[in-house]
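Researcher: Next sequence.
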Amino acid sequence: MHIIKKNKKNKGLVSGSVSFRRQLPLYLMLLVPAVFVLVFSYGSMAGVVMAFQDYIPGKGWYVFGSPFVGLENFRQLFNLSNVGSVLYNTVFIAVTKIICGLVFGVLLALMLNEMRSKALKRGIQTAIFFPYFLSWVIVSGMLVDLLDPAKGPIAQMLAQFGVNAPFFLADEKWFPIILVLSDLWKGLGYGAIVYLAAITGVDQTLYEAATIDGAGHVKKAIHITLPGIMPVIILMSVLSLGNVLNAGFEQVFNLYSPVVYSTGDILDTFVYRLGISEGQYSLSAAVGLFKSIISFSLISIAYFIAYRVWDYKIF
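Model: Next structure:
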């Protein structure tokens, strides 16, 4: 009996060693992204200390050499005259994007699901999903030409009716609307694909039973499809709440100008100007840390509500 146990133990060690040698190339492939994440995702977190320093570039090693000032940077932050409007713009633009993306994404998925022509359905899916792969630099260039008040096609079309087109990208009222609509156009396809994938997981026998009972397309969508994809809708909503203070730096940076700062300036562009343009590294680090804390708190609260109200768990 002792010999049998010893042989089984040795056999297990040998098989484990062989398995490790076979998987060694996979571990080596994983090494590069693991080092990348450690250096750029976790190593850079040490820079948070700048928010509590009077940071002086080049003094000391990395960021550990500048004098500590405690919460002085945060007091200075909340004493800035324009920080209130920046926070409002960020929350307003981000929340509007989230709501529009959720509502129109679900509606588009429901409409595509009702299409019977597979070729037409795939063609529409490809067409609406394509803008998601375009960078905001390209999309911004398209918008600048499209919304040109002198030579743009919209201005020329309005001129046919005797209406002078406003300079949308330099108008305080129109600029947030342009941000929301362009973001919706760019990301709507991705959201619809996610919800379409969720719809395929709904039990098809429920639709057959509803058809026998005389239910139409609208009733099926309301009473079967929507409840069936509700976990995915909740998941997307919870995850999106973490981006309430992330209104889209690339989009705003490529479209805004000082003329629309009052309604288009957001936290990310504000941090960019403070840190890169004005060299106030400590203050910009304080803004970034404040944003991260609020985002983490919001997504934690949203997850707690989803768990308590709908008994939904992400993990």
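Model: The first helix runs from residue 2 to 42. The mean pLDDT is 83.
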